[in-house]
Amino acid sequence: MDLDHPASGDRPWRLLCLSNGHGEDAIAVQILQALARRPDGPEVAVLPLVGEGDAYRRAGFASLGPARQLPSGGFIYMDGGRQLLRDVRGGLVALTRSQLRTVRAWGGAIAQDSRPAAVLAVGDIVPLLFAAWSGVPYGFVGTAKSEYYLRDDDGKFLGMRRLEGWSGSVYLPWERWLMGRSRCRAIFPRDDLTAQILSGCLGPRSRAMSTSAGPVFNCGNPMMDGFEVPPNLPKPPAPGESVEVLLLPGSRSPEAYGNWSRILAAVTVLVDQDRDRPWRFLAAPAPSLELDRLADALRDHGWQCLDSGPPQSWHRDRATLNLASDRFIPWAERCHLAIATTGTATEQVVGLGKPAFTLPGDGPQFTAAFAEAQTRLLGPPAIACNSPEILVNAVNDLLNNPDRWHRLAAIGRRRLGPPGAADRIAHHLCQTFSANR
User: Fold this and answer.
1) Distance (Å, rounded) from C-alpha 187 to C-alpha 217?
2) How many CB atoms lie within 10 A of CB 385?
3) Residues near 171 by beta carbon (within 8 Å), at least 6 away in sequence
4) Are residues 395 and 425 in the same domain?
5) Are residues 130 and 261 in the same domain?
6) Distance from CA of residue 107 to its chain's centroid?
7) d(Cα 432, Cα 35) in Å, to the nearest integer?
8) Which residues contact 106 (CB under 8 A, 6 or more apart)?
9) Are strands 312-316 and 319-323 parallel, antiparallel or unpaired?
10) Can you say how many angstroms the Cα of residue 420 is from the centroid of all Cα atoms in its chain?
């Protein structure tokens, strides 16, 4: 969506937004669009630290400085450091130096501008470090870490996870030091539990975490903005009703094509084991993937094309499958459940109150370790399955257990929170930074 950005001098303050990944870029865009709708919003500059910033470009924001797609796609901590080594060989060091110079130059330029200025870091410690480096006040939207990685819904440690929480929080002391500096004026954790724990760890400055009096704001998760979330929890399909299953292979090539083949293997077993049930599959791949390659895999698994679309329409026995790269939001809202090998989209589906069955593969992103961490983050609604056969059994078990279905829906809604977080964050950003120097 293009924005009608006012002339640079018409905005009362300036903001540089930093983020480090496709999902983080998308969250940042939600916040920036909310800021653009406000008369007291800032003049915005953006700098994607990982990738080329496609989400920013589609929203009408031009990158302030250098951006490049490196081999890891941002997953530098996977594969025992091999992805990091590939990125270093691909120019990571030179790119980082250039980005640091850009951030410092932007911060230094406020001497020639009488308006207040701030940096907003969206993601993890990487953009947070860049924000601290800028020399100007900054805020932090923490998308990568949650206390749910370590704790249950009551805040109690999950068995051995107490060792991982040795410092009292999922955020480590050096991360909290960056958040506790006087120039860090606003912190937005991704969920209520993380806001509570982080507020206690940061001390007296954070006591009033839900008001403008402290730096930790419990505003919710912008991932859910843009979705229509009805007040009632979603129901499982009734007996004889068509089961609508959202298929999410991810966005990173070539990994996503391997994910797609694994998903189709599970779909094949699902359809073959229950030919009497009217299955309807809704495949919503990322726009970066080639539909022709996905269609070839469908043919290899015995599907026949009825309509070239969009959306493309396929069938296999009584089952139908629709394929389109621009239907994620409406299909996520209408589906009963998802089969997924992705990060952000899986979280959004769970946040809508839908169970998500995941199939880890060889990575570099969606590995068994990633899937295990995701199940801790999202709780029981994210069901990691090590094979298509296990997934099929898990789907059938849940379809036959409506009470458990409702419990999972409630957990998913609670962990991701309601829509509207971007507007709430934008409100606090303007209150915090529009008069600061």
Assistant:
1) 6
2) 19
3) 142, 145, 179, 198, 201
4) no
5) no
6) 28
7) 13
8) 16, 45, 64, 134
9) antiparallel
10) 15
How deeply is 238 buried, as exposed, middle or buried, from its count of CB atoms within 10 A (0-12, 13-18, 19+)?
exposed
Task: Say what the pTM is.
Answer: 0.83
Q: Is residue 126 part of a domain?
A: yes
Tell me the per-residue pLDDT of 344-380, one tens digit each, with 9 for 90 and over.
Answer: 899 999 999 999 999 998 878 889 999 999 999 999 9
Can you tell me the distance from the alpha carbon of 180 to that of 191, in angstroms, rounded to the nearest whole number? Answer: 19
Q: By residue range, what is the domain housing residue 333? A: 243-416
Q: Are residues 390 and 423 in the same domain?
A: no
Cβ–Cβ contacts within 10 Å for residue 239, how many?
8
Q: Indicate whether 151 and 45 sit together in one domain.
A: yes
pLDDT, tens only, 231-258: 999 999 998 899 999 999 988 888 999 9
Chain-centroid distance of CA 313 in Å reads 28
- What is d(CA 398, CA 273) in angstroms, rounded to the nearest whole number? 15
Closest by CA position to 27, among listed 144, 114, 119, 107: 144
Number of domains comprising the chain: 2
Helix and strand counts by DSSP (H, E) for the chain: 16, 13
- Domain check: are 412 and 424 in the same one? no
Burial code (b: 16+ CB inside 10 Å, e: under 16) for 147-186 equals bbbbbeeeeeeeeebeeebeeebbbeeebbebbbeebbbb
Same domain, 201 and 103: yes
> What pLDDT, on a 0 to 100 scale, did the predictor assign at position 66?
60
Are 411 and 425 in a shared domain?
Answer: no
Confidence class of residue 9 from pLDDT cuts 50, 70 and 90?
A: low
Distance CA 151, CA 337 (A): 25
Cα–Cα distance, 93 to 99 (Å, whole number): 10
User: Which CATH number do you get for residue 31?
Assistant: 3.40.50.2000
319 three-state secondary structure: strand
Structure tokens at 36: 């653009």
Amino acid at position 216, single letter: V
Backbone angles phi, psi at 216, to 5 degrees: -100, 115
What count of other Cβ atoms lies within 10 Å of the Cβ of residue 304? 10
Instruction: Sort residue 203 into left (φ over 0), alpha (ψ -120 to 50) or beta.
Output: left
Same domain, yes or no, for 321 and 210?
Answer: no
